[in-house]
Amino acid sequence: MPDIPVVLLGSGAVGKSCIAIQYIQGHFVDRYDATIEDVYRKPVEVDNTPAVLTIVDTAGQDAFGAVRDQYLKRGQGFLLIYSIADSESFQNLKRIYAQLLRTKGDHSQMSCIVVGNKLDLAAQRAVSYDEGKMFASHAKCPFMEISAKNRGQVEEAFAVLVRSIRDKQSATSSSGGAGGAGATSASTSANAAGSGGAASGGASGGNNSNAANAGNKQSSQPAGSSAKPQPKPQKKKRCTML
Ligand SMILES: Nc1nc2c(ncn2[C@@H]2O[C@H](COP(=O)(O)OP(=O)(O)OP(=O)(O)O)[C@@H](O)[C@H]2O)c(=O)[nH]1
Ligand SMILES: [Mg+2]
């Protein structure tokens, strides 16, 4: 079964860990516990085809930015995540994407999805849907606005990414390995704008039995679910499973 390395990228507190935990364990974590690194393995079935995702939840905080390069090299699929309620996180994501592109060389070496998280905080929206969509077009990848509170949307985001990876793999193999920039085919138009707008998607694996135990995380400081929790809590390293 193919093992697909997927990396979650984005600034601190945009919701990377909540997205990972929602996807893997099916619940939403309200507290903010800054990540250093968490790694999970999750067997999934997308469009009736099984795969195993190795999901790397990275540190969004600047202090750990130096190690980002290694994730970028290893990853095949990338969730590029910002918070729709935090314009700085959107600007940071553009820089992270530029770093990704530099590391990979060109689009043929990677598949991405741009994810605007915290859609439930629409009243505090600081990044418009169109801005997110425009950036995704520039990055030649699909775009979704989601809320980590909503498992269906989270599953759909991963399913869209897996489809995009597969599309790119078949494009690469049929073109003799040259690949094609932005070969994301039909899956590029995923759009979950509007709460509850996401379909349930093809990513199954809804049970938690094979998931790494993300629920064992210990919180350092409860920060609620505000758009940009402050202050930053202590950081702990967790390499959960591999
Ligand atoms: N309202 C709302 N809050 C969210 C959402 N996703 C995450 N949060 C909250 O935002 C805070 C930060 O979430 P994390 O998942 O820890 O953020 P992160 O991107 O992993 O942060 P780092 O590990 O520092 O990089 C937490 O308090 C979460 O509960 C969401 O979709 N909606
Ligand atoms: Mg985190």
Mean pLDDT: 78
Radius of gyration: 16 Å
- Using the alpha-carbon principal axes, give the shape: globular
Number of strands: 6
| CATH fold-level name | Rossmann fold
Oligomer: single chain
SS-based structural class? alpha/beta
Please trace the helix and strand order, writing H or E for each element: EHEEHEHEHEH
GO molecular function, one term: GTPase activity
Organism: Bodo saltans
Keywords: Cell membrane, GTP-binding, Hydrolase, Membrane, Nucleotide-binding
Main location: membrane
Describe this structure in words.
This protein is of the alpha/beta class and 242 residues long. The chain has a single domain, classed as P-loop containing nucleotide triphosphate hydrolases (Rossmann fold, 3-Layer(aba) Sandwich), CATH 3.40.50. The chain is built from five helices and six strands; from the N terminus they run βαββαβαβαβα. A six-stranded mixed beta sheet has the order 2-3-1-4-5-6, sandwiched between helices. A hairpin with a 2-residue loop joins β2 and β3. α1 crosses α5. The radius of gyration is 16 Å and the shape is globular. The site of guanosine-5'-triphosphate has 29 residues, from α1.
